[in-house]
Design goal:
With about 100 residues, the chain is mostly helical. It contains four helices and no strands. It has helices at about 5-10, 25-35, 40-60, 65-90. The termini are far apart.
């Protein structure tokens, strides 16, 4: 009897699908960026660490692997940075029609 043909050895866990990735939570990204824009230095760093810790805890509860969590948090960082750049550009560019 060959043991590697047993169904138990062929079993693969179901892949985890995150229905609402952090980067698609536009409200959360905008809120985080707006708060960070008003903070500087240690205050900004502390706030960002709190955001990361809360989201890490949520993603662990959902059941994502450590690699998936790291990818999600990196994507969140990129999305927040993009929103910070957008906010900075919006403040520099005068509005209104020509």
């Amino acid at each position: 009897m060959v043991h590697d043909t047993l169904p138990l050895f062929a079993w693969q866990p179901r892949p985890k699908v995150l229905l609402f990735p952090l980067t698609r939570r536009v409200g959360k990204v905008r809120h985080t960026a707006a708060k960070l824009a008003g903070k500087h230095g240690e205050d900004a760093e502390l706030y960002w660490k709190q955001v990361v810790a809360a989201n890490r805890k949520h993603l662990e509860r959902v059941g994502l692997s450590e690699d998936q969590i790291s990818d999600e948090l990196r994507s969140l960082f990129d999305a927040v940075q993009g929103e910070l750049h957008r906010l900075a550009y919006q403040r520099q560019t005068p509005g209104g029609a020509a």
